[in-house]
Design brief:
Blueprint: H1 6-31, H2 38-60, H3 64-93, H4 106-112, H5 115-124, E1 135-136, E2 139-140, H6 141-161
Antiparallel strand pairs: 1-2
Helix pairs in contact: 1-2, 2-3, 2-5, 2-6, 3-6, 4-5
Family: Belongs to the DsbB family.
Pfam family, one: DsbB
Keywords: Cell inner membrane, Cell membrane, Chaperone, Disulfide bond, Electron transport, Membrane, Oxidoreductase, Redox-active center, Transmembrane, Transmembrane helix, Transport
């Protein structure tokens, strides 16, 4: 059985990341009107970062060592994004009296605070992150994003360990 080459896999993974971001922006945010919370935005940044790593890998199409470096970076970035998906799932599972207070809108964060303070607030999340706005098959959006990060990490690991 002939497996696809690394370039095809990398470009396909990049396209999947692009599709995930397009769905998040055009379907969930604009069509359904769901505003992303702080952790949602953080997860989007990680999806974009994984996608960019795979895109650069596919366009560069390096030899084995370079491919392993790209694969390692993509895998680590996917694991980083997974952390924030898990954090949001944890917030969604908290009893109502333990949910942190809601913060200001994201646009206001970058207007009122320094970039480092705003990014720190994005990474922490707030009460808005605990709200389940959408589900499919009983799994909330950060659960599906976690599934996506796990799949992307598996792709990265496959390319990292591939002979």
């Amino acid at each position: 059985m002939n497996l696809p080459n690394n370039q095809t896999i990398s470009l396909s993974a990049a396209a999947i990341c692009g599709g995930l971001i397009a769905i998040a922006i055009f379907y969930f945010q604009h069509y359904l009107g769901l505003e992303p919370c702080y952790l949602c935005i953080t997860q989007r940044v990680f999806v974009i970062a994984v996608g960019v790593i795979f895109l650069v890998s596919g366009l560069h199409n390096p030899a084995v060592t370079g491919q392993r470096i790209y694969a390692g970076l993509a895998t680590l970035t996917a694991f980083g994004g997974s952390f924030f998906s898990i954090k949001q799932l944890w917030l969604q599972g908290l009893p109502e009296d333990q949910v942190p207070a809601c913060g200001p809108p994201v646009d206001y964060l970058f207007d009122a605070f320094s970039a480092s303070e705003a990014i720190s607030m994005l990474l922490r999340g707030d009460g808005n992150c605990a709200e389940v706005q959408w589900q499919l098959l009983g799994i909330s959006m950060p659960g599906w994003v976690l599934v996506s990060f796990i799949a992307l990490a598996i792709v990265g690991l496959f390319q990292l360990l591939r002979k």
